[in-house]
Amino acid sequence: MTQMTDRQSWTALIVIGLLILIGIGGGLVGCPHYKVWERKMAGQAELQYQQGARQALIAQAKAEDEAAISRAEAATRRVRGWADAAKLGCTDLGRAGDVACENQLLRDAATYSIAKEGHEGVIISVGAPVSVAVQPNTARQE
Fold it and tell me: Which of 93, 104, 105, 138 could be joined to 86 by an S-S link, Cβ 3.0–4.6 Å?
């Protein structure tokens, strides 16, 4: 009966040894495949990140384009308003149709607007037509 037990112990020992060898062999065979899979997953993650970053940049560029268009439209409205105001100012001064008066008022309005927006190096030029035009109680020259 002890022979059977010895035989069983040797069999168990051989089976355990074979399992260990199979485990080590499987690990050696599986490691390269795991590394390839891991690199593939890292590459896919990087690709998704880059696509998201690209989409964010595209959205930002579109927003900047829309903002630039809106700023240009606002500037156009502002300049048209200045032109209308210059014509009215010169008319109020009794100089209707005087291009030099209108041009001076437009220059002064543009210079004031640029200085008001905080740009550096701008000297505010307020000429006589502006000082007269902004004083509503000044008598008109007709």
Answer: 105
